[in-house]
Design goal:
With 389 residues, this protein is mostly helical. The protein has helices spanning 3-26, 34-40, 42-52, 61-69, 80-113, 121-150, 158-166, 170-191, 205-226, 229-237, 249-256, 269-296, 302-327, 336-339, 347-388; strands at 72-73, 76-77. The chain is 73% helix and 1% strand. A hairpin with a 2-residue loop joins strand 1 and strand 2. The radius of gyration is 24 Å and the shape is globular.
């Protein structure tokens, strides 16, 4: 699909996810009404407020009350309170602008290389959905410094604050990104009509399997090695220097770890294996997606494989989190909202590992296909020699 045809669905999806997140953030004020806790329950109201507040344009209480208290100092006007409010509004503007700015290029590339025709529609929908989560997480990341500054204590534990705010608001992203992906794919399906034949690539099965294995090994490095308790603890304690950028452990865990686990010390082996099933599912989803990604892409370029691997890792994370929700019997008594609190966690790490996995898969695919092409002319005479003899 050409860029001219793909840009319209990408813009539709970008506008849709931005509008939905703005609407969700504006709805957070309704949870402060007197009847909200009575209708939904105190715990549900608090959970939903935590989901929606990071996307609200209105400042939280810590900014609003702090700014109001600082308007007057010793009977004289103090402009710092208004400045803190202005910083928060700037953060909100950056956040919503960044959602659109990050979503559109990724969706444009996915729709162009993975158009929803010839059986690709489910794959396109899932890929754009996953990219919506990535775009929202990146938007939260770039706007977070302004949010921290608006609270008036940006120099205190800056990196831990940054890590905590990056991971906030992810649950509502799961829903809004799915709706935006549906709108994007529908628009792409319309614009793809009359675009001409968009065939699948002929990729040798052995090359596709080796490529998927190389990419999955990169993801497994995070799931199995970096996420192990002792290694994760070393990352958490890492502190190279003091000052503003001290204590980077929380931020490193956010961007490198796809989970967390320890050996079955004191627990039955069967329960431990059941608890590790989500990690197995994550790796299985990544391998299966990378196995078929070169086949469904119109052209398996390095950028397309990298973006596709990021989406595959995010989808694997969501699948593992849904499985953990289904097997977590202890949390059933708290309700669906409580169980859903873990949805969307680990997207920054999925972005990091997925990019590396996609590049590794693309390089392996090119080397394997090139080696197969070089060996093919030598193999043909050898196979025909008995017939000539």
């Amino acid at each position: 699909m050409t860029y001219r045809r793909a840009v319209i669905p990408a813009l539709v999806g970008g506008l849709l996810i931005t509008a939905l997140l703005w609407w969700a953030g504006a709805s957070a004020q309704a949870l402060h009404l007197a009847g909200a806790a009575d209708a939904l329950g105190g715990r549900t109201t608090a959970e939903l407020e935590g989901w929606l507040t990071p996307w609200s344009y209105d400042p939280p209480d810590v900014v609003r009350f702090g700014a109001g208290a600082a308007d007057w100092v010793d009977g004289t006007p103090d402009p710092d309170g208004a400045r803190y409010l202005a910083l928060y509004h700037t953060a909100a503007q950056i956040r919503f602008g960044a959602v659109f700015a990050f979503f559109v290029p990724g969706a444009l590339h996915l729709v162009r290389r993975l158009p929803p025709v010839h059986g690709r529609l489910p794959a396109t929908l899932l890929a754009v959905w996953a990219w919506g989560l990535v775009a929202g997480t990146l938007a939260m990341t770039v706007s977070t410094p302004w949010v921290i500054a608006s609270k008036g204590h940006g120099s205190y534990r800056f990196l831990p604050q940054l890590a905590a705010l990056i991971s906030s608001g992810r649950q509502i992203l799961v829903v809004t990104a799915l709706v935006a992906a549906a709108g994007t794919v529908f628009a792409a399906w319309i614009t793809a009509k009359g675009a001409g034949p968009l065939p699948r690539q002929a990729v040798p099965a052995r090359a596709a399997r080796l490529s998927a294995t190389a990419g999955t090994v990169v993801v497994a490095l995070s799931v199995v090695v970096l996420s192990y308790q002792s290694v994760a603890a070393s990352l958490q304690r890492f502190d190279p220097a003091g000052g503003l950028f001290a204590e980077p452990g929380d931020l490193l865990r956010e961007w490198l770890l796809l989970g967390g686990w320890a050996g079955p010390a004191g627990a039955p082996l069967g329960d431990w294996l059941l608890h590790r099933l989500p990690d197995v599912l994550l790796l299985a989803v990544v391998w299966w997606a990378l196995r078929w990604l070169p086949v469904v892409l119109t052209r398996a370029t390095v950028p397309a494989m990298a973006v596709g691997a990021v989406c595959a890792t995010v989808l694997g994370l969501l699948a593992s989190q849904l499985l953990r929700m289904a097997t977590d019997g202890a949390g059933l008594r708290w309700g669906l909202i409580y169980l859903s609190s873990g949805l969307g966690y680990g997207v920054p790490a999925a972005l990091t590992c997925g990019l590396v996995a996609g590049v590794a898969a693309a390089v392996t695919l090119r080397l394997t296909v090139g080696r197969t092409a070089d060996e093919a002319p030598e193999a043909t005479p050898a196979a025909e020699s008995p017939a000539h003899s």
